[in-house]
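# step 3/5: fold
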Amino acid sequence: MCGFSDQRGRFSTAAVFRWIMLVSVMAMACLAEAQDTPLSTGSKRAEKFYQKGEEAYRMRELDIAEKNFKLALEADSVFFEAMMMLADLYEHKGRDSLAIRYYRQAANRYPDKYPALFFFLGRLEYKTGCYADAAGSLSKYLSYPETDEENRRMAEKELTSAVFAADAILHPVPFDPV
């Protein structure tokens, strides 16, 4: 077993989404390189740290990757790809509050660059009990017309749950056991 599946060999939903996110971000970086489109940074120093972090991440050297992505952000505080990779790395490590922080940072700075980021952010916010925030992120994701159909269905379902949960917290029903 590779550590992402249960005893029956099935992959957990969280693991599948982490890999989708990682592949998406790495594909964006590869596409940018293949099309001679630069990364979102103009800093050679930031780009160098990012590339080192990306290589370490591929090798599953998460502490080294984390250090390099942070250095990339120190060199360029608005470096989108470094924010996204840090968010994914922290989610992978189970450090959800830090993952949310970097997803939000990327979403606030570049709201239309990568719509799927709102899907991942919303699911993580829902997981951590931030239902109102999750509803906002998932609604934002669903506002983009060109989204993956399967992710769209999941987002719609989770949005319904997030709205219900947020309302239930604001308007609790008294519990009087018999």
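# step 4/5: annotate
Residues 13-34 form the longest helix (22 residues).
# step 5/5: archive (pending)
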